[in-house]
Each structure stands twice: as C-alpha cells, then as structure tokens.
Amino acid sequence: MRSLLVVGGGAAGCELAWGLARRGVATTLLTTSLDTLYALPADAWPGRPPPATLWSALASEARDAAGLQRAGPLRRAAKRELERLADLRVVQSNATGLLRGDAGEVVGVRTWEGPAVRAERTVLAVGSFLGARLALGPAVELAGRLSEMAYDDLRDDLRDTGLRLRRATVALAGDGVAPPYAVEHDVVDEDELAPLRVDGRVVAAAGRARRWAGLWFVGACTGEVGIETAAAAGRDLAAHLAQAPSPGLSGNA
Fold it and tell me: Looking at the whole model, is its pTM more than 0.90?
C-alpha cells in the first residue's frame, strides 16, 4: 500500500497513523484541531495504555505523582511524536465528504477549507463527532467533546450516499476540571460493516458494500467505546493495513 488517510485525531486515529508511518506507509492524519490530539476523557485518567502503542511509549511522560495519566502532557507529547515521523503528515482540517474514483471507490475526502485529500485507503476514526450533540445540564450544543465543535457535513454526506447510521450515546462522569456531560452521535449500522478480527476480537471494520471499497472505520463511530479499546484498535488496524495490498474494487482487505 502506498498511501493512507486517517480522519480523526483521537486515540484510534493517532495510534493508526503512528503505527502506519513507523512501518513506512505514507500517511496523512486529518484532525479538526492540532491542539487536541489524543485527548483523554478526563484531565486525570486512571486507565492503563495498551502495550506497543504510542500512548504506552509516552505514559511515563504523562504520568503524575498519583500515577494518573494527565491529558495536557499526553496531548503535547503525542503531537510532538507524530510530527517527528517522516512518513506522516498531520493536517488541521475538517472533512466534509468522501471523494470517489472513476469506478466509485473511495479515494479520500473533501474538506471545508477547500483542498481535497487523496489516498489509496481512507479510515474514519471520527469518534463521537458524526452528528454529535453534547448535553451539559439543560444545554445542548453542536459538539463531540467539551469545547470542540462538531460539523455535520461528513455525517450528512455518508447518510446521503446511502450509508445506514444509528444513534448512540456516550456519557462521561467528569472530574475536578470538567463537569459531567453526554454526547449523542451517529455510529455506522452493523449491517454495513465487514469486521476485522484480531485474536478473535473485532478491532475495526471495512465498508461491506462495493460502493465503500477503500473505506474503513475504527473506534467509537463503529459503536466501540473506551479510550483503551480505541487505542488498541488503532494499533491493530495499523498492523493489518500495513500488510494489505492496494484495495482496487475487489474489497477492502
């Protein structure tokens, strides 16, 4: 495989981009904000990073005196390490829709800023940002996380081109820095997906139908919840895609 586009800079997207670029795959990571790469669910997070991940490599740098992972140090360290990789281009932009090739296959995305981003494969690692509505007390905002705007353009494009979606909700308990809130968002219907299993565990999924050739999904947009789960999924999908041939029209594997 010569090139891959990752849309989304959360745990799954960062791990996928990191794993691919370290294996010599020319990779573009598209994120709505360079300042919120690898955002943890809370300012201080008790979870353990999965082994052989970017997060595990940075865990000691992000750990505080109480043994918790701190969001700020992890974000800054992840940005630094991702931008160091020669085969990785990190771009701040908003994906608004899929690009199609001459035979109908997915060949990248259109962006709100204008320039299209093309690749042999496109992976949507957009977390809870498809049609996201954040509820904080009685207030409802167009956001996928606190202080992070969500844009419905990509969700609308996926739906308008025939991808079946369903609603899901992620609730976060909050901590001493952030209040509790919930995000309602779209996930891809299971019937649309061809799952990738690693050691018997589903870690990601390709678009099942022919019209989704070249397109993969990973993380919360498939219904998988949890930053540790997302990190492991990005790690495992990188290992799979780095070995996969070019997609053509015969499928995504």
Answer: yes
